[in-house]
Amino acid sequence: MARILVIDDDPRLVKVVSTLLRRHHHRVEAVPTGELARQALRRGNTDITLLDVNLPDANGLSLILEMRQEGNDIPVILLTVRTEIHDQALGLRLGGDDYITKPFNPELLLARIEAVLRRTQATAGTHRDNQADDNLVEIPPIAIDFAARQVYKNGEAVRLAPLEYSILEFLAANRGRAVSKEELMLDIWGTSRGVSRTLAEHVSRLRRKLGDGLIITQTGYGYLVPETR
């Protein structure tokens, strides 16, 4: 399982890619702009990044150059509609680890991610964290097994609806960081419009099942799952 950052402003693509990656037990965070990408990348809790070359506020090639100049060596797969060899070569020279043109086959994307992770992990010699630690998050009395997509409270399995689990997984993967409602809605539903009430209802159900202290409301902004309680 890898922690994957998707940087793309196309909500439909983000929804498809996020669903695909989670189905293969990866943890996914998605951001739509270069500025939010910089914030996410500087936290350093990402194993690999899927980066759109054309962002609304930044050029993806400039962003990857900026990353490398800052010493950020997180692997990057560039996603773009550009098919010219010159563009592909430039992206790789600036620090990209691979290059995929849109539209792409989902199986090809998964294979490329696995190949880049194998190369970079072999070069580093060790993975950033122990695999078992990545798969299990404990925020007593709650434990979340990402690999099994199962949640426990005081050692007892808790049954969650798929959307409830997806919301909890995203917040837990970003524990210690306040996540805006817009970011959460974009990741789960692929849009930040018209689902605010639905999000609030699902969070309310999660609190009833898991306790009021796990998901903290950040008034006027969003939600936070703490590192520990």
If you had to describe this structure to a student in words, what would you say it looks like?
The chain is α/β, with parallel strands linked by helices and 229 residues long. The chain folds into 2 domains: 3-124, Response regulator (Rossmann fold), CATH 3.40.50.2300; 136-224, Winged helix-like DNA-binding domain superfamily/Winged helix DNA-binding domain (Arc Repressor Mutant, subunit A). The protein has helices spanning 11-23, 34-43, 60-69, 85-93, 106-124, 131-135, 162-173, 181-189, 196-210; strands spanning 3-7, 27-31, 48-52, 76-80, 98-101, 136-139, 142-145, 150-153, 156-158, 179-180, 216-218, 222-224. A 5-stranded parallel β-sheet has the order 2-1-3-4-5, with helices on both faces. It has a 4-stranded antiparallel β-sheet with strand order 6-7-8-9. Strands 10-12-11 form a 3-stranded antiparallel β-sheet. A hairpin with a 4-residue loop joins β7 (142-145) and β8 (150-153). α1 (11-23) crosses α8. The longest helix has 19 residues, at 106-124. The two termini are 25 Å apart.
The secondary-structure class comes to alpha/beta
- Which series of helices and strands comes N to C? EHEHEHEHEHHEEEEHEHHEE
Strand fraction equals 15-25%
Number of helices: 9
Q: Please give the CATH architecture of the largest domain.
A: 3-Layer(aba) Sandwich
CATH class category name of the largest domain: Alpha Beta
Average pLDDT level: 86
Number of strands: 12
Features:
5-stranded parallel β-sheet, Arc Repressor Mutant, subunit A, 45% helix, 2 domains, 12 strands, alpha/beta, Rossmann fold, 229 residues, 4-stranded antiparallel β-sheet, globular
